[in-house]
Structure formats: C-alpha cells, structure tokens
Amino acid sequence: MPNKKVSVIIPTMKGRESMLKRLLSTIPDEFETIVVDDTDLLLAGKRNKGARLAKGEYLLFIDDDNYLNDKAIYRMVDKMAYNIGVMGMTACYHNYDKVIADGGSCRQYLTGFTKGLRTNISIFETDHCLYEVDEVANAFMIPKVLFEFVGCLDEYNFPIDLDEADICKRIKDIGYKVVMNPLAICYHESQTYNGIPDFRRPMNAYFMARNKILFQKKHLNLFSYMIYLALFLPITVCGYGVCLIYKRKPMMFLHYLKGTLDGLLGSYKNKYQS
After folding, report:
1. CB count in 10 Å sphere of residue 248
2. Other C-beta atoms within 10 Å of 201: how many?
C-alpha cells in the first residue's frame, strides 16, 4: 500500500528524460510520485499542479536535475515538527558528492541581497542539526495543509525564480520556521556556485530581474520599496551588467534589462513561456 505521508512532486520538461529516470530510481516505491510535464506551465505552475493532485500529508518538491541519497525522504519526515513550515534538503554537487551546492540562503529584505549558507564546503565540516534560513530552493518539503493555507506558490508573479523565496517569506510571516536538514541529501546537476552572477538561459536572466523587483514590491512597505528602487536596484543592475559583460554574455544582460523594465512596469513577456 502506498505511503500517504509524502507526495513527491517533480516538474520536468522535454529533453530531460534521462535525468528524470535517474531521480525516479532513487525515490522509494512506497511514496506517491507525481511527474508534471505540462508544456503550458513554467516551474511554479507545474509545482502547483502537482500539489493539487497530491494526497500526501507532506509535499516534497524536487527538480528533475536531482537525485536522492539513501533515506533522504525518511530523514526529512523524521525531523518535521509542528513549528516547521518549510524544510530544505541539502544539495551536493552530483560530480563532487561530498561538497555542498545549496545549503539554503539568508536574505536582507531591504537590499534584496542574499547569501548562500555552507556553499562549497564539505558536508563533513558541518554538524547534523537543523538550522534556520530565510529561503530554500531546488528540493524542499512543506505540509500540504500549510501550503494550501498560504495560497500555494505565486505562479503569476514568480513563474520561475523566487517562487520558493516568496512562499518561504509568507510562511515565516505567519510564525513558522524555514530550516535546512543537513542529513537529507540530494545531488544536484548544477554548475559550481561562485560570487559572479551568471545565467544559463535568457529566460532565467529575464525572470530573475523582473521577479526581484516584484518580490521587493510585494514584501516591503512603500517607504522601503522606494529606498530599494532609488538605491539598491541601480547597484544590482550595474553589478549584474559588469558580471555578465565579464562573462562575455552581453546579450544575456539585454534580457536582464528587459526583465528589469517589465518588473518596474508590472508587465509580463509572454514569449518566455515557451
């Protein structure tokens, strides 16, 4: 009989069949697994669609470019408590499986700047205790009743990028903790993280720029938002511009600028849905 404790929700897309197969092979058969490959939806929309179909007490969202360490799901459930709203898995690089790629992030809400925790350090240098963060990404668990109570992921404002940050903020605002679990490990097929911003696709450059502004507008009061627009937004745009030109990706910066403009105007560039 399927275990009704956890529903594993996997958003996927064409061309990633081999990664999806690898991920599925690491999920115990007892858990409900929902694969969402709806081509009309972006990441947050796929996650929401999977959540609507799920029957589990907990929703485990995990992207298809991951696979799980042994007992990772069990270790998530074992550590869940009444005051925990979101729990992230520790992601290690798939080709350096003892080095952390994502250990959660802390955010300075006025500036919009974030800092990754435990990034690029060995898992052997960390303790085994849960620790609080502001936001998670990539692989994370939320009680279904809480997910529905806060209104699910905001797929209109954050169809891809910052959808996790937004729901973590909303869940923290009603008194729950957002934590990372060092013992629950997944392996993420990602580039090595460093301090120089970069993007794989124009869509990511566009939405990161657009969504940063919408995130600030949604979660700051008017006075703080005006400070952000006057001071920290220009710093952010200039910083990304320098980094992308240094990376020899000037066209990517143009997509970033377009996203910035659409974020300020509150508009949406439909071609990025394809």
Report:
1. 8
2. 12
Q: How far apart are CA 50 and CA 62, in angstroms?
A: 11
* Distance of alpha carbon 138 from alpha carbon 11, whole angstroms: 11
Please state the rounded mean pLDDT for residues 141-160: 96
DSSP E strands in 37-112: the ranges are: 58-62, 66-68, 84-93, 100-102, 105-108
Query: Among 256, 246, 245, 179, which Cα is nearest to 212's?
Result: 256
3-state SS assignment for residue 194 = coil
Task: List, for residues 70-108, the tens digit of each pLDDT value.
Answer: 999 999 999 999 999 999 999 999 888 789 999 999 999
Would you say the pTM of this structure is higher than 0.70? yes
CATH of domain 3-188: 3.90.550.60
| Contact status, residue 232 vs residue 183, Cβ threshold 8 Å | no
25, 46, 166, 168 from 158: Cα distances, Å: 30, 12, 8, 13
Amino acid at 247: K
pLDDT tens digit sequence for 196-207: 778 888 999 999
- Amino acid sitting at position 241: G
Four-residue CA torsion sign, 134, 193, 62, 213: positive
**Structural domain spans, the chain:** 3-188, 202-273
DSSP letter at 31 equals: E
Closest CA to 165 of 207, 143, 135, 132: 135
Return the structure tokens found at 92: 């290690």
pLDDT tens digits for 223-237? 999 999 999 999 999
CA angle 223, 263, 231 (to 5 degrees): 40
Alpha-carbon span 200 to 187, nearest angstrom: 19
